[in-house]
Amino acid sequence: MEIRVEDDAGTRLDAFLAARVPELSRSRIQELIREQFILRNGKPAKPRDAVALGDNLSIAIPEAVPAEAQPQEIPLKILFEDEHMVVLDKESGIVVHPAAGNPDGTLVNALLHHCKGQLSGIGGVERPGIVHRLDKDTSGCLVVAKTDTAHRSLSEQFSGRTMEKRYLAVGQGVPSPSSGTVFTHIGRHPVNRQKMAVVNPPGGKAAITDYEVMATDPATGTSLVLCHLHTGRTHQIRVHLHHLGCPLVGDPIYAKPERQKARTGRLMLHAWRLVLDHPTSGERLAFEAEIPPEFSPWIRLMEISFPE
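The structure corresponding to this sequence follows.
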């Protein structure tokens, strides 16, 4: 579809199009502009840009994609599986569920194929079985519910803080003191909406992290930190270590990886250990995800620093 601007010059691009293409909502138009399906004079634009007389606006409506995630044959590293749940060792770089920018190739797509669709429906068609999430670049333990009963039990363990979650993190810097508890409120950053931040109560939600420095590397000014999460806020460890003056190595949101001495090619955060009650038997189960090779230099230092 092509539209030439012949009046209403100075109007915002999204408002201009909303008045002329009534079948598209303004929010949908904004989305199409951001995804560059709407161009002004053949070039990308922004929703707030003002149109000018003579502008040529082109609109390409992308084909609809199914709202329901589709099965895909993607390898999974499974730590445990029965008819109630699956515990996975997620690789760094894989997204947990479909979302804007990641319509497929996710853990959910892989699980739908592996489990033949037998996943809890509580999370909806886009997030079947998903009880909790790990960031795309975080690796390690993740539990998935196959049944609604298991989903409810696991969710209650998360909210009741009876599930134990321990992470290994490599920070740029060394926390002081070397062990302790960070108790803050975390909420959306007031300026950069991609980020979370420590905020003053009653804003945000309470976030609690125990931490302990396991090893330090003076050559790179980094430290290996064991974190025990008592809550599960978005980016909690990333925000708390940044709050301690030790942003994660390889973190593109809360640090500047290009300025860090340690170059690992990934976000240095690994969900190492997960302890939970089986959703039907109640048996206490512990799982550990193999520590990725990128952590090896700090693991060796830990063995030197803390000999048996």
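The helical segments are 13-20, 26-34, 107-114, 148-159, 236-243, 296-305.
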